Amino acid sequence: MAIFTTKDTKVLVQGITGRDGAFHTKGMMEYGTKVVAGVTPGKGGQEVAGVPVFDTVAQAASKTGADTSVIFVPAAFCMDAMMESCNAGIKLIVCITEGVPANDMLRVISYVKRNELRIIGPNCPGMISTPGVKLGILPGNIGKPGKVGVISRSGTLTYEVVDALTREGMGQSSCIGVGGDTFIGTNFIDCLEAFQADEETDSVVLIGEIGGSDEEMAAEYVKREMKKPVVAFVSGRTAPKGVRMGHAGAIISGSSGTAESKIEALEAAGIPVAESPSQIPGMLKEKLQ
Amino acid sequence: MAIFTTKDTKVLVQGITGRDGAFHTKGMMEYGTKVVAGVTPGKGGQEVAGVPVFDTVAQAASKTGADTSVIFVPAAFCMDAMMESCNAGIKLIVCITEGVPANDMLRVISYVKRNELRIIGPNCPGMISTPGVKLGILPGNIGKPGKVGVISRSGTLTYEVVDALTREGMGQSSCIGVGGDTFIGTNFIDCLEAFQADEETDSVVLIGEIGGSDEEMAAEYVKREMKKPVVAFVSGRTAPKGVRMGHAGAIISGSSGTAESKIEALEAAGIPVAESPSQIPGMLKEKLQ
Amino acid sequence: MKLDEHYGKRLLAKYGVPVPDGWVATNPQEVHDITERLGQPVVVKAQVLVGGRGKAGGVKMAKNAAEAEQAATEILGMDIKGLKVEKVLVEKAIDIKDEYYLGLIHDRAAKKITVIFSTEGGVEIEQVAAKTPEKVIKVQVGIHSGMRPFIVRRLAYESGLDGEAGKGLAKFCSSLFAAFVGEDATLAEINPLVRLGSGEFVAADSKFLIDDNALFRNPKFATVAEAAEKGTDEWEAKQSGLSYVGLDGDIGCVVNGAGLAMATMDMVKRAGGAPANFLDIGGSSNPAKVVKAMEIIGRNKKIKAILFNIFGGITRCDDVAKGLVEALGKVKVKLPIVIRLSGTNAKEGREIIGKTNLITAETIDEAMQQVVKAAG
Amino acid sequence: MKLDEHYGKRLLAKYGVPVPDGWVATNPQEVHDITERLGQPVVVKAQVLVGGRGKAGGVKMAKNAAEAEQAATEILGMDIKGLKVEKVLVEKAIDIKDEYYLGLIHDRAAKKITVIFSTEGGVEIEQVAAKTPEKVIKVQVGIHSGMRPFIVRRLAYESGLDGEAGKGLAKFCSSLFAAFVGEDATLAEINPLVRLGSGEFVAADSKFLIDDNALFRNPKFATVAEAAEKGTDEWEAKQSGLSYVGLDGDIGCVVNGAGLAMATMDMVKRAGGAPANFLDIGGSSNPAKVVKAMEIIGRNKKIKAILFNIFGGITRCDDVAKGLVEALGKVKVKLPIVIRLSGTNAKEGREIIGKTNLITAETIDEAMQQVVKAAG
């Protein structure tokens, strides 16, 4: 067990009766996750994979003690689903759904009072804490228990890195995909703080990509606060710059956002940046010595 | 110095150029408070009692380092004034103004993220931490430095109690009037927590009145958490019940709200309830032995 | 301030909340005419700002205009809990399928608006809450985020409504919330909320409390408030910045600050007396306020003695003393007056009083004993 | 998605934001007629979704209809940063007193909307921010609490506007914020924001980015997006649930997941090759997607080799392999194809590939070497 979860984490799945919700509910349970309830309005009383379905999160939480929600509902309904979980006292939301409007996330973030609730995502693969808790769609079979924490804005690239670590005998404590949208509930720094505090983690791999300034801010945080070794990977060195429209973005983010800016900031903070996922285990071993 | 303030508290006054703002700015400074700035839109560049006036809180805070705001602006503009202070990074707001619409306070409370900012009031006399910090309109000449914390929903009744304490040689650490409106920023429990943690406070006087359930909740809190002696006074035993309209209030507050309910709850929590302010010092001395 | 059923329903209609067709009347002939215009049958309902009018006989069904006129004759002028019925609402009778309870209220402890729903409508909801709390569903609503779909889903599913009813309830709740926020209500209660045979949700009653602090942006209510209160002592006091509530006792009280005024009443009672009023002259030092206070109190013939209890903070004791002396010059008062001055400029105040034949007291307890003695 | 100036201004007008009178035209004759209708003089402005059109000669003043027609003749068909000008906006010239900059943007780090204002309008605002940062005022705006008066006071006072201008700005900002939220913009930029001689604030230009994720509730934009992109490879890819961006290199890439796709391009370059495209087949396992991916890539005649880099998670490697075999049956591809399968069902996938003459790789690094060699 590592960050944001415990071995007693009890999960409800919003949108459990949908195709993806049902499929990944089974996947989470196969990994050992305690999925105790599902929620689909109007389908209360049904069962999916032996899990009871409720009409509302409040009913599901009060009947089963669920404290965590994994969300698979369509994008148009995600704002309401997240607010519903917050209102019902859920402590951790993992929103897998892709395509949630940015304004809806702003509304959710404004609705949720600080410290009451953590949201991971949306548009993310979720997280795995080895062994036994999988929240979302990360494949459960490529990792193994260990002491490396993995944080990523990307999905498949995370699998690639986890696979490389596992092949080199470096197991993971928690792997977390924070999502790539403009507004996400949990960012790199939140995860770094948690890994810094987590006794079962001895080092961290940070997988960034172009856009925004999360990597730059994470670099600053690592330099200032982090005692454990961190190794990074940044994708998008060859990505086209795109035809930029408007200038406001440059004003609020300055020069950050490019792969060069991110790599420079990370290296300046003493974080080695790999050029291929296969280099990561070696770099991490070197830092751990 | 006691709760919510330090000897370095730097104060700006919103509405400093108004009659009440200017008058009480002088009163606060006479008490020793560091009033470093005033704010009145359109009057930037003026001075009131030697204090520079700015157009915006952000300008005032960045130029003077003010971290606390005392608000005297008319009720219709209080919501905006509070949001402005919050946005400018002010840490403590004391809103003296009476007559702020309840919905405006709901909007302010929703705007302010938890832990970022404390609001005292509105419709309150403010607070005094002896010696040297007065925020608001409490008369500075009736108290004296000491170890009793005073929390009250009322103004003049607080003076009465402080006067009684001072006459009996019992000085005060902080006296705080939380205000009587439906929605207030800081309630009894917030103050009790702070007094419990404050090394310069050895006992607390709690002055309640009819309406709401703050006294009942405070009683529960004292019973559960409070290690320091607490004595209470509740006004409104003879107040007319009024012609109640609608039933929703009874549903959300149950039987609480009457003087009887409050006195019963306080006494059940081991808190003696005085029948006259003059009894309070004696009761407190007894508890302190 | 309270809004009567009729005015509340007019507000609801403005926000798209369905209400029955209806008109207000002040005499039986009007009721007759309205009934013919609406088409029969109708309900004739007393418009009073107090609950329990149904039990008191203030609501009557009528099959036709003659019956309605007769009902109005019985209801108009009726006394309900001390209030005289001066208006009735005549409404077209509706086809009631189910009766629910729906309320929105400012929830002090939660610092939110709370919505309350129950399928047990048309009855006293406190009793439902006491006996079968699981039948009263409460959910908090953020003022900014509003009546989100999940909130209504909770109300509907947790109380066992079917999907169709849930949709109707959602629409009704959204409109009611818009009215609540838009009109700065502190309470909006629909009991019963009626589901018609057609499936539509209709507000069969309405109770509104409007935030007095928000009247500056809702000036339309000011005239209503004035019409309801004008001419009363309470209203006259308010015009002069005083807060006054008449009571049954014989000791008049003049105090600065609401908390101290309440405490003063409590202590009068404790000392064996009976307070005749609550009167808060507020925080400022305007002698004119004291004059007005003496005028209002002077009218109450029950009063046997008057107590001034002033703790000077912002209020200056010498200003109060001056006002009192001025008032005694204008308003002839033969009753004994006990005055206790403490705090800011108390000495100066006492000097002014010393030149009169008023009874002065140093402490609050001493003042109580003197005024109770003087009234006895 | 981007909105051109003209469409952006139509949206602004809907929210009460003042914009100059103007019409869009696609040929010089229309421009002539519009100019006569508007009254002279006018401005003729190229409508292209890229900045810098002024410097490129895409904006011309015209004193009369003949001049306007001539200006349109010059501008229509012009190439601005690779985009051909197909429309112009003809606007009545306005009486410019001051030029400001006003922008609203989703601020990722702050998790808020940020409003940006400067009195240095009409120029490149980044340069103002770099040289004189104190002239660029930024304030965060909550989506629920909105464009509160204090926010505009900050913009106005901190940039030295007078009180009258501050009031005009407040009105403009409120309307612009309503448009930003109401239309689900991620960026709304008015540069220059013009203050007329009359004191009124007018949007002399408009740049809008609309949130693609919110198109489901703004269907009107879907047709705009389609019109702008229809027929491109990017658009065709999107219809099949693929994400495609064409590049200049000679190695075609087919990858699952955006992050891995970007990393794959980076590694191709690092191995000495040049990627021909970004192509993300997404997280599902539908073989039809692979067929469509091969079709789109197959059209690019520059390509010398194709790389499949698949890490199976939710995507199953055997599905991708099946899709590839199916595609090769339908789309004749003579180029070398290197395929690397790892993760879920990689073994099954490799068995399917083993029956073909494709080049397989175990690791990502091996795949890179092989594909660069094949392309060389």
Describe this structure in words.
- The complex is a heterotetramer, with two copies of chain A (289 residues) and two copies of chain C (376 residues).
- Chain A is α/β, with parallel strands linked by helices.
- Chain A is 34% helix and 22% strand.
- Chain A has two domains: 10-120, Rossmann fold (3-Layer(aba) Sandwich), CATH 3.40.50.720; 139-288, Succinyl-CoA synthetase domains (Rossmann fold).
- Chain A has helices at 19-30, 57-64, 78-87, 102-111, 156-167, 188-197, 214-225, 248-253, 259-268, 280-288, and strands at 10-14, 34-39, 47-48, 51-54, 68-71, 92-95, 118-120, 126-129, 133-136, 145-152, 172-177, 203-209, 230-235, 273-274.
- In chain A, helix 7 packs parallel to helix 9.
- Chain A is globular.
- The model of chain A has no long low-confidence stretch (mean pLDDT 92).
- Chain C starts with a strand and ends with a helix.
- Chain C is elongated.
- Chain C has helices at residues 5-14, 28-38, 65-75, 125-131, 149-158, 163-182, 219-229, 233-239, 258-270, 287-298, 317-330, 346-354, 364-375; strands at residues 2-3, 22-25, 42-46, 59-62, 79-80, 83-84, 88-92, 96-107, 112-118, 136-141, 185-196, 201-203, 207-210, 243-246, 251-255, 277-280, 305-312, 337-343, 359-361.
- Chain C has 13 helices and 19 strands.
- In chain C, strands 1, 8, 9, 10, 11, 12 and 13 form a seven-stranded antiparallel sheet that branches. A four-stranded antiparallel sheet of chain C has the order 2-7-3-4, with helices on one face.
- In chain C, a hairpin with a 4-residue loop joins strand 8 and strand 9 (112-118).
- The model of chain C has no long low-confidence stretch (mean pLDDT 90).
- At the A-D interface, helix 4, helix 5 and helix 8 of A face strand 8, strand 9, helix 4, strand 11 and helix 9 of D.
